[in-house]
Design brief:
Length: 423
Amino acid sequence: MNTRIATLVVLALCIALPALAADPLPRATPESVGMSSARLTRIGEVLRADVENDRIPGAVIAIARRGKLVYFEAIGYRDKVAGAPMTNDAIFGIASMTKPMVTAGALMLYEQGRLLMNDPISKYFPQFTDTRVAVMSEDGQHILDTVAVDRPITVQDLMRHTSGIIYGNRGTTAVHEASTQALGRPQATLSGPEFIDALASVPLLYQPGTVWDYGYSIDVVGQLIEHLSGQTLGEYLKANLFDPLGMVDTGFLLPEQARDRYAQVLPKDPLSGRPQSTRDATTPLTFECGGGCAISTASDYLRFALMLLNDGALGDTRVLGRKTVEYMLANHLGPEVKNLIAAADPTRADYGFGLGLAVRTTPGVARVMGSVGDFSWPGATGTNWWADPEEELAVVFMSHAPGPIRWHYRQLINALVNQAIID
């Protein structure tokens, strides 16, 4: 048997394997909820070809419409090097898909009156009392001076990324360099309190409330949850979000008994040929970072997406109030805010931003299909999800495919799913 035929046989076996994870909700035929079975088969056809061509190792995709599961498939390999087929209970590092969950957890404290959107974060972390904003040289390579903030950073600023706090590795200015020098890779080297101290020592790149830019804001939200709850972020989310929603495989540390379910990347980036890897999720973090350190499965994350799509409830379990979810999913970027979302994720260019996630504000213009009001926020490891209230649609795509190729799959899966809607 030649190599190509052997590969095709293994791929076929991968697709034929029975589902190992419990379905996150009742199944239905696609046609019964206005989708086409024939058109949905295009998803598997395209992804199997990409697995064969070493563009991705494999993927799990779950699609729900009108409260029914219509597609839940594991494609390709959990570990292609080892020849281990993908299963739909595979666990993935979800990177920034952590952010909406952490924001939802903080909004529970908002509902309890334990924090307010306009609270200055210095109320909880005095290290930010004298926060300064950098005055940059024209080329951005030098900090010439610092000035006082026009107003304090608020909780709302953190949740909508208008805090002026940035990621050090997402730019080349002197402030980005200062952030990298102060923080390094904080979840591997700093405790939570040390992270706050280091972050507060770096000047802001912008005045609070003036620019949407990507950074450690939701990591601060995670530390705020720990400060107010007296629990670790993982303990708090497990008790208040994961367990109530039945998200049994979501957390910040991969249990030893689940090690063989953790999906692996291809050894080399398919575009650059450079080595690539994901973090060892069995190694405890020095602090559970709210901005990007969680692991999950397609089934688990679909439950979270459906909770938001259902105004804060999943079945008989309610974790957030309807008005709270409406507020979270509204656009929080007014005309006074400069929107740099396209620099963080070109597939979300021209989206607005709610609390912890992007929100579509126009039927066209954006690079992907959707409806006004759809919401999402993907992960740098290659994972993605979105929910569309108008279409009663929720989609989760899990694949360990970091690097620039993830932009391709965010657009591709969006097209393949939406083209299957016929009613």
